[in-house]
């Protein structure tokens, strides 16, 4: 059995970068579940992980840090989108109510 085979069996190969590393987190272990690693991997990366596939179920700390940074960036983008959408709706409502007031009929006769 080669060293790569042994690393896969003992769980020291990172699923994301395929490098052997002594410090890994099991994607479906307690820490991996707490960090929602499987959800983030499936959401942000062009790979799919599931508990029943035959590939390694561990991720190295370097890849996890990068995944977490990407997740935080995506969260910032979504928050900015919600803020801008809310501001745009508020501006549209204010603009519409201003236009309604401006176009209300007046008591003076219309111009000829």
UniProtKB/TrEMBL annotation:
Keywords: Metal-binding, Zinc, Zinc-finger. Residues 87-112 are annotated as: Disordered. One of its GO terms (cellular component) is nucleus. The keyword Nucleus does not apply. Transmembrane segments: none annotated. The keyword Zinc applies. SUPFAM superfamilies: Glucocorticoid receptor-like (DNA-binding domain). Residues 90-104 have a biased composition (Low complexity). Zn(2+) binds at residues 14, 17, 60, 63. Pfam families: zf-AD. GO terms for molecular function: zinc ion binding. Residues 12-87 form the ZAD domain. This is ZAD domain-containing protein.
